[in-house]
Amino acid sequence: MSNTIKRIGVMTSGGDSPGMNDAIRAVARSCAYYKIPCVGFYRGFQGMIEGDYVEMDARSVRNIISRGGTILKSARSKEFLTAEGRQKAADNLKKAEVDAMILIGGDGTFRGGKIFSEEHNIPVIGVPGTIDNDIFGTHYTIGYDTALNTVVDAIDKIRDTASSHNRLFFVEVMGRDAGFIALNSGVGAGAEEILLPEENLGLERLLVSLERSRNSGKMSSIVVVSEGDKIGKNVFELAEYVTKNLPDYDSKVTVLGHIQRGGSPSCFDRVLASRLCVKAVELLLEGKKDLMVGFVNNQIESCTLESALKEKHDINLDLLRISDILST
Ligand code: F6P
After folding, report:
1. 15 touches ligand 1 (CB under 6 Å)
2. Which of 18, 72, 116, 261 could make an S-S bridge to 146, C-beta 3.0–4.6 Å?
3. Per-residue model confidence as pLDDT tens digits over 80-94
């Protein structure tokens, strides 16, 4: 493997996701395998700006394979949005003799990485790590599978109590701009309705569907609501609206919140993070830059950061039809 890269830096940025530690581990271990020094920056771009980093060898990442969160911490850096902030980061990378970066995060992370690379000619490789799964160029992002399992497990528990009390539950899940978590957990947990940012199904349909559920003899109903659902009402307003229009329903609201971002990563996320990050290191050693690694049809592939940012990972709306059929 040809190699002009002398030292690789790694960081995690944006909303954390289960499996980020597996990604850091895979970067550090791959660097050790290829005998390239590795440096971990704390709190994403902010650590680069402040020169806050740690040398990492194969042993620095022992016993983190099963741990949620990120040992390198994460942040959304406002200072990095400025040219001055990015200049400080470039100066610090030079001081630390880091000549390439692996950036683990979502679209905000890749946007920052792309500008940084263009301004300072420092090769970067993006690794998609976010529970939202909203990144083009990969069918799965690191953390999405674990988050889905957390949500399905929580809804199963809610279903138990909903069923005991003949109640209707509105369950809000994460996904400000993307409904992957809502749609797949909704089907996986047998929700009666799923509300997404991608599609406005309308309030009327919600009432009709809930009435139909009740008339068909269902003992409980679950409506999964994505944070950014397109109807434009938050989960409490939706519950209020339904209670007003269908007063026989005893409605409750559960907001799952940040529980979805934590926990031990699923085996799927561990393997995904491992495969993506071995590839990320190898791409840098092959002299590649400004790419994102992705998981496409069970293969590890790469696309430009530009296309990852420009194009959209489309959600499979056919799952709404499947949900309709199965929630009969
Ligand atoms: O992007 C990941 C995500 O968890 C979104 O689903 C959610 O809307 C957002 O981050 C929450 O961000 P924060 O932790 O900053 O409140």
Report:
1. yes
2. 18
3. 999 999 999 999 999
Separation in Å, CA 8 to CA 58, 72, 192, 252: 14, 15, 48, 50
Do the beta carbons of residue 9 and residue 41 sit within 8 Å? Answer: yes
- Which tens digit of pLDDT belongs to each residue from 192-248? 999 999 999 899 999 999 999 999 999 899 999 999 999 989 999 999 999 999 999
Q: Which of 133, 261, 313 to mutate to test the pocket of ligand 1 (most atoms within 8 A of CB)?
A: 261
Return the residue matching tokens 């040398």: 55
Q: Specify whether the CB–CB gap between 24 and 104 falls below 8 A.
A: yes
Task: Please tell me the distance between residue 94's alpha carbon and the centre of ligand 1 in angstroms.
Answer: 32
Cα–Cα distance between 11 and 18 in angstroms, integer? Answer: 15
State whether the beta carbon of 151 lies less than 6 angstroms from ligand 1: no
pTM for the model stands at 0.97
Does 132 participate in catalysis according to the annotation? Answer: yes
